[in-house]
Amino acid sequence: MSFYRDHKDKTALELWNERALAPYRTIRVTPIAPALGAEIDGVDLTQAIPPEQLAEIRRASAERLVLVFRNQRLCVDDQKRFAGHFGRLHQHVLASSSLIAGASRDPEVLAWRTGRESRYTAGDAWHHDVSCDQEPIRASFLYVEKTPEIGGGDTLFVNNYLAYESLSGPLRTFIDGLTAVHDGANAWTAGYGAKPQPGRNFPTAEHPVAPIHPATGRRFLFVNSTFTTHIPQLTRWESDALLELLVRHVERHVAFQARVAWTPNTLTFWDNWAVQHHAVWDYYPFERWGARVSAYDGAPRASLQ
Questions:
Q1: Does the chain have fewer CB atoms within 10 Å around its N or its C terminus?
Q2: How do residues 165-182 score in pLDDT, each as one tens digit?
């Protein structure tokens, strides 16, 4: 693993080695993989969460980025209440779309059902959730009720801090000054065949390629193959080549990744800025279904810098 031997960013290495050394008092945190992810025990998400426990969940999120809560029999109100601790709830433009089997009538709940008749499943590619929004989702809360009887249907996650920090110094310096355009049509029209409502367009936004996370002060890679279309400061050929390099960099470095194996009634909560994810559709013709609630940052009009 040459990255760990040769990487010269001592501050990042110190953060890497020192994470989660201080004990937790109200929750049990069990890492899933070295790069990111943890199983959280000692929390009942159907009940009000005491302030000290909520503070430790926030800390675990900053340290581990992806948190898994198992054996949680949640209703939609439970899921929305927990997500509401982390910001204003997001309303997805496809939440009630007939294109998504199992879609909810609640615009704050993106429900889906994948089975024998499905032509696609939501999230079957590396992406940040709805990165095309002007104000990107900060955190996502995915609750899976039904898992395939034969197994499968895992979700892959990647640590975008490490994806950025493992790039060479000259390349990091170059991309620090760049932005990228994220287009909802690239994901939903090209991916699902969805069309926006008459007279409207799917959202587009321009975000830094390597923003600074307000919670940690660390840069992270914020481009993905699902929504990101081009880098406006470059020619089309240069943009295509650089985006191809960056998205392949995320995909191929499995050392930066963790894999969550779902069990029924599991809620997984992740930092949607510092993390990308990919839902693995390897269980056809069996079924899998659930719902996602997402939250903006607590500050109004929070944006990536």
A1: N
A2: 999 999 999 999 999 999
